[in-house]
Write a structure and sequence with these properties.
binds inosinic acid, binds magnesium ion
Amino acid sequence: MIKLIPVISSQDIRNRVEEIAAQISIDYMDKDLVLVGILKGSFIFLSDLTRAITIDHAIDLVGTSSYIGTDTTGIIEFTKKLDIDISGRHILLIEDIVDTGNTLAALIQYFISLHPASIKICTLIDKKERRELTVTVDYACFTIEKGFIVGYGLDYNEKYRNLPAIFDLKFEDTSTA
Ligand code: IMP
Ligand code: MG
């Protein structure tokens, strides 16, 4: 049986998203900023973040299904590529959660090949336990050590993305034998 244990409330998420958005608005003042959301997990975070950022910016989305290889030269398979030209622009990648870092490391290689002015990373959750690659997270709303979490865009087998807060997902053994 699956049990959901509350870990971050919707009010705490709201407060942190506002703080991060204020910081981004200062850091990118007078810069040509493009938020690039990574599908699907970032969609709720992105929609709250973009509305809380007070400077002009563009938005695009990328979708990845898998990458071949686990190192930074891994080839990414895209389910959706960028629509807009990012050359010479300041890119802020928006992730739901950074875990091993493999997805981001491979994505960054792809973005570098498109010659943006800069690339930085903003994640809702920075999960440290399984990090395999050195990925510099520039903005993190929350840091957790371990566990599998769901809600606010994060899923388990495509479920729970709609939950307004963040929960730790635990499997309970209910067998009596
Ligand atoms: P990684 O950093 O390449 O290992 O993968 C990060 C991706 O794995 C995230 O974008 C999520 O889609 C998924 N993921 C990792 N940890 C969790 C979790 O705790 N809950 C839900 N999805 C997770
Ligand atoms: Mg993801």
